[in-house]
Amino acid sequence: MANALGGSDGARGGRDTVLKVAVPRDFWFPRVVCSYGYFLLAPNRWSPSDQALFRTFDAAEFGFASEPLGAVVDQPGGRGAPLRVRCDRPLSADAKRAVRTGVRRMLRVDKDLASWRRAHPAAYRRGFGRLFRSPTLLEDMVKTITSCNVGWPSTVRMNERLVARVGRGAFPTPGQLARQTPARLKRDCRVGYRAARIIKLARRFDSGELDPAWFESPQRATEELREALLSIEGFGPYATANVLQLLGHDDELPIDTETYRLYCHTHGAQRPANSKQLDAAIHEHYEPYRPHRFLAYWHELWRDYERRRGKAWTWNPERVATSFTAARLR
């Protein structure tokens, strides 16, 4: 990671660009980055030794030249200090704004945690409340598709292939994915039946039929967003709940096999043959945390992972991240 930008100090002989991003006083970079599984998915690379995140941004999407942009993000001054973003080339003023915008979105720098602090003060004191996400909505949605009905190691591999074989080192743009065929995407990235869904979604973004600004608008109510997401092929209740929280609406519970495993583990309950029999009890358990039920659930789930594997910012992505499977966590 120290050489990610071409020099021992992360610079290219002075030709790089170093940006600063101001953050709230309670912002601690390792906790925020290492709070959600997407920090382990390409093109993100976390370095435990450097406590830094390496990220490749697509050139066209962020207004650069033709070559993808490499950037390293860290917080050398510690909690509350500005973030440092070291980019591997000189950037125009517009490109600098684009990078800052992408970093702020990924790390939810502008999220107001006052309501969360009231709902779950213990989690807030632990620095938990900002869940890592992607710089674009399309990337969040594609990563959601690749995480459904599959083990986490397969999700990791699908995203590695999408980045390497379609995005040329960065996460694919809507246009790059829109030009794929289902057969080619299945063959090259081994995404299976998800290929058609990913391509249809990308084409709707590429044509402007789906507008990220509409989904990201603070004027959008949760119900309105839920209805819009459920109308998109491949987005059932679980995927919709996940994308809602990625959009900042973190009250929906994404119940899946991990939810059932966690509930039975923490409550000493026997898992029934029909796991859905637990749904009512799960909803009742998280009801006191409205309007942040997702965050409360994820806080419990992530603490369970960390009790087993150590603090997330110490994880070696190659050795630990791919081992989170239901069979190993029982």
- Backbone shape: globular
Approximately how much helix is present in the residues? 40-55%
The radius of gyration over CA amounts to: 19 Å
Q: Look at the structure and give the mean pLDDT.
A: 91
> How many β strands by DSSP?
5
The span between the termini is 34 Å
- Put simply, the count of helices is 16
What string, H for helix and E for strand, traces the elements in order? EHEEEEHHHHHHHHHHHHHHH
Strand order of the largest sheet: 1-5-4-3-2
Unreliable sequence segments = 1-14
Most strands sheet? 5 strands, antiparallel
Strand content: 5-15%
Class computed from helices, strands and strand pairing: alpha+beta
Task: Give a short synopsis of this structure.
The chain has 330 residues and is an alpha+beta fold. Helix content is 45%, strand content 8%.
Describe the structure.
By secondary structure, the chain is α+β, with helices and mostly antiparallel strands. The chain has 16 helices and five strands. The chain has helices at residues 29-33, 93-107, 114-119, 121-125, 137-146, 152-166, 174-178, 182-189, 194-207, 212-216, 222-230, 237-246, 257-267, 279-286, 293-309, 326-329; strands at 17-21, 44-47, 52-57, 69-74, 83-87. The protein has a five-stranded antiparallel sheet. Strand 2 (44-47) and strand 3 (52-57) form a beta hairpin. Helix 5 (137-146) runs antiparallel to helix 9, helix 8 packs across helix 9 (194-207) and helix 11 packs across helix 12 (237-246). The protein is globular, with a radius of gyration of 19 Å. The relative contact order is 0.11. Residues 1-14 have low confidence and may be disordered.
